[in-house]
Design brief:
The complex is a heterodimer. By secondary structure, chain A is mostly helical. Chain A is built from four helices and no strands. In chain A, helix 1 (2-28) packs antiparallel against helix 2. Chain A starts with a helix and ends with a helix. Chain B has helices at 6-13, 25-31, 36-43, 47-55, 62-71, 76-79, and strands at 19-23, 80-84. Chain B has six helices and two strands. In chain B, helix 3 packs across helix 4. The two termini of chain B are 29 Å apart. The chains are: A mainly alpha, B mainly alpha. The interface between A and B is medium-sized, with 13 and 17 residues.
């Protein structure tokens, strides 16, 4: 029951992200390269989320648990890497932006960088660790 | 108290010796005519977990090791073999 609720919630959140993204793209008109990159990262995150959810649904259908002790450990490890990436991106993004482009990042942009970097680090490490074994 | 020698420090820099885990899960599964999925369903884990344990890529918890041993009607000692590298 808890697994099924998690899957339904996951699908709901991913669908909400897709709808928001679609509205943004439709109303944005011409998009610059620096606006396309975050959209690509969000699309990667959504596709990866759907892959993980599909994998869990497949296991539940076979009568196997959606998550076992190995995947829980994988989840904890991926959360740790995502957390580290978030912290370093919060420190590094304003610094790099200042040094490389001589541009001061706004607070909302730093928040976006932190969320995207953390999310991407979590997703990459989760998928890598889940396929590597430990 | 034992003094630390230069050899102790150098041994830390060299290739690490460790234990390699081998399992007899595959052999015992074949004996009881169980697939990885059957065994996974019996002990309540995913099939990939059984696969990674068999390959020695994942060290199961003591509880999971006990559950696997019980499902294959053996003991943890007989199921998991540790060899020095």
């Amino acid at each position: 029951m808890k697994d099924k609720l998690g899957i339904v919630l996951g699908i709901g959140i991913a669908a909400a992200v897709i709808v928001t993204l679609a509205f943004f793209i439709l109303n944005a008109g011409h998009l610059e390269l620096n606006e396309i990159l975050p959209i690509v990262i969000v699309v990667i995150l959504v596709v990866s989320t759907f892959y993980i959810l599909w994998d869990r649904i497949k296991n539940i259908k076979k009568g196997l648990p959606a998550q076992d002790e190995r995947l829980k450990i994988t989840n904890y490890k991926a959360c740790y890497y995502g957390f580290i990436a978030s912290i370093w991106s919060a420190v590094g993004a304003p610094l790099l932006s200042g040094i490389l482009f001589d541009h001061e990042l706004q607070g909302s942009h730093v928040t976006a960088v932190v969320v995207l970097c953390g999310g991407l680090a979590f997703m990459i490490s989760y998928l890598y660790l889940a396929h590597k074994g430990d | 108290m034992r003094r630390i020698s230069i050899y102790d420090i150098l041994s830390l820099l060299g290739p690490q010796r460790g234990l390699r885990m081998k399992t007899r899960i595959k052999e015992l599964r074949a004996r009881y005519d169980l697939t990885q999925e059957d065994l996974a369903r019996k002990i309540g884990v995913r099939r990939e977990t059984i696969l990674f344990i068999e390959k020695g890529k994942y060290n199961p918890s003591l509880k999971l090791a006990h559950d696997i041993a019980k499902a294959l009607q053996t003991t943890i000692d007989e199921l998991f073999i540790f060899e020095e590298d």
